[in-house]
């Protein structure tokens, strides 16, 4: 995620980090070059003048506007829903920690079921495991830090690690419940926190595994490309030498919107405009460690060259 | 569901799988042919010149834009709500499994009520039954795999199989509760999971049985067709020979959007852009089997030629 | 509700059932006739040429587009919210039935409180009562079928029958609770189902009693009418004899959208595009009877000439 | 709230009650008069011809369309959320009444805690108190009717009357709980109803105290006014004598949309298009009295000259 | 937050407080000046006439409209979600206070766990702490007033003060639970209030830490600036001397919308259109003090020169 204030004045036009410009540059260059050729030939190919009035552009533009507006909203909704799910994990894990620290009775803690620290860190490990699952990276190091070597080894063999860790937390809860350390009512409340975390994990899987229907993407790309490559024929007779410039501007906004939708539609990756899952995991782990009363908390995540990963 | 990266460059124009092009090809061909005839005749029929300016197109285009935008959103919302409901079934079933594995006491399990495995697999069977109900296919094979032959035979005779299976799970819960194996508070929490699954099933039925009001579909189809078939008369005088091409492009986007809405409006079918219910059911069953501690889990569902069913 | 596949080809233009055409025909006919008169007179009244350029149409069209788009969405949201509320009644009533069948202990059932069948059928009666209240029809026959003659007579004297029936179900729950047949925790869970049904009933009342603010409807109707009746003056000089046709097309889409909003804004009536409350009630009653173990279930509701009431 | 069917034909143009016309008449008259002066002078002031093409209108019109559409939706969302909150109060109060009537045991009712009637009427009083708070009117008469003279006197001295009444209901609940008349589980369920009512009251306060950001309103008003007062210069050369008429029509729709947003943005007042809080309070009180078994219920609220207050 | 009625007539154009005009004045001035230069030079630079028709403006305008509409909605949604979260804190804290005052038994209050006043004021302190965290100000004074000097000192050393205070409240709840003063069921209900407050705090953090993706902001700014600086070339040939005026009007609306989005996107600051967190905290603290039975309540917050902070 890019974290910076809005650049002002001319700096606005030279900000590259976080811009979609790099990813659309090839298509944009081809398009402008094509517009240049059309301008030089005055729209004539093989002695045949290809003349398109502006009428088709407003007609196709109508459909294009519907597409771009729709896809834009759909992609951003996915981005924001992804962020909301991680925000829910922030508070569900904090409420879980509060429950672990406040509601079981103290006596007998050593004798039955897991310790409080272990219960809290299991949830911290679950959050890391979900992040690694979404990004296809290796969760082992984070799991070892949270759970210790042995427990981590058992977890990494499971196919769905977040679910396995939540089940482990549930087993701890069951042990506390059966030994009488935790009132059934409060156990049920805490099970609801685990259910919320389960729901967040399933929600993230849903967003990651279900793209916007491919036919939309295809129809939108096709319409945008045809539109922008026809454009020089429609403009060359009135704009003459300015045609490539104007075509470039129009294509920049349309290709840019399109590419931006592609980028934020799947918000859990590691591109510049994706969600900062690393930072969110650090935040959650820090909160949980603070709830446990630890003193040496990790440093808050810092953006590096405007980017938080 | 189509699962593939966005094709680049010219490949973009030749991707057919998942495109709506095949389903609109007949109407599109007729429209372009008609535009060709109008072009050849210069808009004259029986020595009478039919001349339409572009004014009506921007007027009707206004209404058409409202329609297409509205229906597009409504159809996609249904698609995404369907996906969310299946996502909820993913987490409700996982939380159910966690409850079954963690909260009943062990003693006496053999003596009263069903075993844990049977309780978990009843929910797996329910998910398969719902899929078969939505797609109108035969649930028997999946039910036998999950429940055994005898139990499956009883279920298939019920009219609403998912509801019957959830009631069966509820009866198991009641047996555990009455025999004292499960605390009433935790039983209530687990009943809430069953209620969530009931809600998901009812939500899917709702989407499957209630289309977007027919009058909308009708008004939209009619407006789009009239618009595209009038178009050649409005363009022929300024575009001459390019008329069929431009009419084809405009009709492609309008008919395409329309057909896409038709396709994803009812997302539980087996068309290319529909939801991959088979894969989702395998995912759920695998999760539940892993929660039970099974080792030989089914392979994760794989897309075949970009398609996940 | 109209239940049919999309008609293809020319059949599309002759489908009348479910179309809004009948309800807008008078206004449409007057408008086209008026356009015909303007065409014949070439826009001259009393030797005075009334000439309107297309400029005002794009200006007013802007406001009209905002109106139509807004009202369209608002009306459809009401329709879909109405459908969702009935979908919630489907699952809340099924979960209620599961609760009644699974969680009270068997012993002493005859001695204290109502029987299970009576508890389930009270909710079936409530659903019918709500439908009759929303449509202003007589609930007596349905109540007698569900509750018996005597109990039905008591209910019909109440002003708010659904609330009275839910209170009756609550009293049964209280009786089970006080006699120790039902655990307080499960009783609370089942009371939550009654609260959901109460919420659905109140939601339906809300939609039925609160129209979209009248000033919107008024402003929209007025703008649409003025727009369509001014249109011939703006078109006659460029379209000549085609003016009535084009005016008719534009008016068809605008009046049609407007009339459709009027129709689905209040979705609980008995018009063709309204929700099929009769069928939904049969579905709910059938589900409940199946949960009770009854064998002779009512036939599933069938559309008659494409219409489900 | 205006409650009437849509007027047809010419009656549509003479319906004044509920129309925004009266509130925009001054600005509209000034605008039309100004357009008349511009028409008479042919756009010339001090021998200088002020000529504006239609280009700026489509450019500013773009921004105006975004504004009007956005503000329209935001204002209607506030209106509808306000209605939803009151709908939630309808069902939360009914579920509260069901709880009071069904779940406490009868024995000892006289000896500990408040009577059932007092518990139910406290919530009726809370609803009235919220309405009076939102409208800035005097709650005393309604409180006396619901609670009696003495209790009402104590309540009116509190700053936040609805919160005080809900706390009073909570104290009754606590008394029933501590005396063993009500199971803790059911007490918790009923406390959740009180929490819902607290949430509704806070939601209404939120809408009443937080307008749409003032800068939006300002920017929208300014743009709409500049647009409509520049319009005559853009139209006078092509429309001549029809200029004031067309300016009046455009201004009517733009000023009307704007004024309508102003009106329904704060939906708890007593203007014609505001929510009928009086009627809703009568509905709630009637429901609660019927739940108590009272026979002489108040008459249902009736619209007077199409208006429900 | 600006709290004032809509100014009428000419006053509308001179209202500056709350307007975005001051923040866009520099860019606006440069743009108008540039338009003036273009006008004087008749669009000729170095004897070369730069002529742009209006075609590109409608094409780019299309993308700009999508952008502005999208970003406007996204920014306002963030604003309104922020307000909703604070509204939830209002009612969750009131329900917490009701729980503290009504449901624990009185006996033994002095002997075990914190007093009621301390439990209520801990939540008041949490609300202040969240506000100071969001605005980066010093929470000490408010914490001392709510908690006393000593307790405040302990809290301010914690990194996440709101979470620490909620954990403290949870510990009080645990003490009441373990000493038998509070029924477990009611304790669970009250823990749910703490979970709601945790969720609100996490929601506010989410909005504050996650801006709208930077690439959107960048693309929008760039498009709007290019659009407005090209505009004089498109207008100078038809509008002549009026060009700077019209460019100024168009730029005012586009830059204004853009700047307004920037401002309300992050609604927890102290700018004029931000949320009045100070006033909300006073409202919450007053509610809680009134629930405790205090008589000398703070004065309700008053707007100063139309501004509530």
TrEMBL record, chains A, B, C, D, E:
It is found in: Cell membrane. One of its GO terms (molecular function) is chloride channel activity. Its main location: membrane. Pfam families: Bestrophin_2 (PF25539). The chain crosses the membrane at residues 12-38, 50-70. Keywords: Cell membrane, Ion transport, Membrane, Transmembrane, Transmembrane helix, Transport. It is a multi-pass membrane protein. GO terms for cellular component: plasma membrane. It comes from the Bacteria. InterPro entries: YneE/VCCN1/2-like. Belongs to the anion channel-forming bestrophin (TC 1.A.46) family. This is Bestrophin.
